[in-house]
Amino acid sequence: MNNKKTYGLVIVLLLMLPLMVTAQKKMFDEIKNSGAYIWGYGQSEDYDEANKRALDDLIGKISVHVESHFENRTEVAGKNLKKYTESIIKTYSSVSLTNTKQLVYEKRKVFYVLRYIRAESLSQIFANRENKIRDYLMMGTQAQRQYRLGDALRYYYWAYALWLSHPYRENIKVNDDGKEVLAGILLNNRIQELLSGIRFRVEEKLKNPKDNNTRIILSCTYNGHAVQNLDYTYFTGQGNSSPQEVTDGITEVYLFGAEQKAMEKIVLRIEYKYIRKSYQDRSLSAVLQTVAIPFFKKSVKVVYLTGENVRDVKARKLIQPRFHAVNTYRKNDNYYRKTVRNLLIDITNGEYSKAYKYFSPQGLEMFKKLLQYGHASVLPLQDTLKIIRLNDEIMVRQVPMSFYFPHSSRHFMENVVFVFNADKKIESISFALSEKTIHDILRHGKAFGSVADKYTLIRFMEDYKTAYSLKRLNYISSIFSDDALIIVGTVLQHARPIDGMYQQIGDKAVRYQRYTKKEYISRLKNVFRSNEYINIDFEEATVKKVNGKDKIYGIQIAQHYYSSDYDDFGYLFLMIDLNDSLKPTIYVRTWQPKKNPDGSIYGLNDFKIN
Predict the structure, then answer these.
(1) d(CA 17, CA 542)
(2) Model pLDDT for residues 376-429, shown as the tens digit of each residue
(3) Which of 288, 273, 287, 281 is nearest to 88 (CA)?
(4) φ, ψ for residue 261 (rounded to 5)?
(5) CA distance 45 to 47
(6) Which of 141, 213, 403, 558 is geometrically suited to a Cys-Cys bond with 540, CB 3.0 to 4.6 A?
(7) Burial per residue of 540-556, b for 16 or more beta-carbon CB atoms within 10 angstroms, e otherwise
(8) Would you say the pTM of this structure is higher than 0.90?
(9) Contact criterion met (CB below 8 Å) for 248 and 211
(10) H or E segment and range at residue 360
(11) Do β-strands 225-226 and 229-234 pair in parallel, antiparallel, or remain unpaired?
């Protein structure tokens, strides 16, 4: 009986199939002839090929609609206008156009595909790009005000590139000091203004008599203010260096051996494109690789190595720093200032064993790891320490140091934090968060936590990022809950509850890779073993607290990850329990390479806590 029913159903479907094909063909014709849609058509025995042809046809027809808006543009000179316009429109296809509607049917082993979009919807696609231009302009303005010039240049340049890719860019106007101006003109002016105002100056040349190498310390200012972050490369005498960075107005370059003798100047090139970081946004990345953008000549800076303002220091001797506490002065602060000063002198002179007496056993272990983290050197310009009292500990902050990695010719600038215990011994060493990230945490009100709670959170995040750099595998293992949820991917899916803590995770489902704590630590061990260095930089921090008295916090933060064989940029979320300040615990760690379509990243709202 069942076989008869199944056989009958098959017969019915076979009889209906021609009717279904006829219906689809009718819909094809209606869409093509309605005038309300822009459509593309493709056919092939292979479905993917038919779909590609339909999408290419659609892009070609959209290009016809906007081609005239790219005429007489300098970047089109010498190029086929039609091909150029199509290449621009394809930068929209990674998200917007691939989500256009589709009709498909198969007849005699041939696939017929129609990709279409309402003509009125096309303006929304371009409006979305305009919104992104405005967002990057706003982010660049904020970064410029905080002298984060690397971030400001990046956002302005990205906005400028997107503006050049917009077919109706002449209609995009923004407010500039009360005047309506073209967004492109404003962005170009902002970039030129920033690059013009950046100044590098040689402060010291420190020669090493053993190998005749020279370490040149530079100050970097913008309109007289210390630049907080900026990336650049420089000509070494044989080729360009790897990317270097300015932190808190200080940077340094290295010249080696005989090459430097004939060099009277250093040529630096300020980074403003940030192609690698753009990979988080596929459409932006496509634009940067497609649109012809004029070179900004003012990004090239020449720094002369001779002159009355350049001091030549032949011996490896540190000019003793003059420190003062930025918070309320206390007499006991003198001890910590003097200890740090002597420690820095010992590091600079290479007399590391003399410094051992300043450390507890745990602190000494970290100090030795710090010295192994590249070639450590102290920057002698900074003369201000921040001394923070937290319970029984003293945090001595903002000690500028540089770490050089000869195999990769890479060095990083870090503000180092030394934490003294109740016995006045250095118990911990970490790399400081940026001033902006610290401000983002401290600005919260009393409901968020006390000042001590906030600095406990700051210290934890600094210990966290430093543990990866110094490859402190045991510490990292200790701060993760045994049942921690560790996810690496783009989006969270449903997961099983952990100890009843999570009732459910948000219903957004995309591919991801989940690790147990054991798997994650094992993976991390291999990463540590295979890399000369790891460096992590945080920005754009958002911190929230779970409602109630429990000190459970969620941190969403943009993370730049650098290692000797791999770099990436993405968004990190940590759920941290700080109820026991001596034993912080991570319950959730997620990482995603880009924000969700709505601009969010995963956080406390994706977890329901009992």
Answers:
(1) 55
(2) 888 764 456 788 888 788 999 888 888 888 777 677 888 899 999 999 999 999
(3) 287
(4) -60, -40
(5) 6
(6) 558
(7) bbebebeeeeebbbbbb
(8) no
(9) no
(10) none
(11) unpaired
